[in-house]
Amino acid sequence: MHTSTLPSSAASERNKDPILNALRPLLPDQGKALEIASGTGQHAAHFAAALPGWQWQPSDMDDTLFGAIADHARQQAADNVQPAIALDVRSNPWPLPAKTRFDLIYCANMLHIASWICCPGLMQGAARHLADNGLLVTYGPYLEQDVPTAPSNLAFDADLRQRNPSWGIRQLADVEKEARLAGLHLRQRISLPANNLLLVFGR
To answer: What pTM was computed for the model?
Structure first.
């Protein structure tokens, strides 16, 4: 597939470098990563190419983009990107061997365009499959108590809820609560451009 016809996300193109710059100090030189909701695969290809010591496992509940994920990886010469797997965070257990462990589970821009049940599903699945010192990293917009919400995020939230009443930007406190129930705790909150946050959870 030619570059011009590859499915791509403008937001992923904009945010891939700020996210990578935030991830680098958190990660050792080598490891295994599982990406949840990989979408077009732009993040998988970009991060794997920049982190050659990492094996990157993309996943999505929509297998129609698996070809695009593979093509983006090929375009970046990222041969450390594994073939994508079908994974719905609501499934229990996840479709992985029970003893599979990852040093990083990464999930960008999913929680606000999914029903709320996906949040506990993500936390519980991550708790089952993270290595002892592994990290769950989520990226996207969040609402925070005592922190004014950017007008652009308020408009985005209203648009999401109009499109689907079960969608919407999540309260950080609610996400933290689900993490704690799964045995994970918020270690870092990193501000990124366009009023997005990178959240780092661990045991």
So the answer is: 0.96
CATH number, domain containing residue 102: 3.40.50.150
Q: What is the pLDDT of residues 38-91, one digit of tens each?
A: 999 999 999 999 999 999 999 999 999 999 999 999 999 999 999 999 999 999
DSSP state of 30: S
DSSP alpha helix (H) spans, the chain:
10-23, 42-50, 66-75, 118-129, 151-163, 172-181
- Total tally of structural domains belonging to the chain: 1
Three-state SS string over 4-20 comes to HHCCCCHHHHHHHHHHH
Q: 175: domain range?
A: 3-202
DSSP classification of residue 25: G
**Distance in angstroms between the alpha carbons of the first and the last residue of the chain:** 41
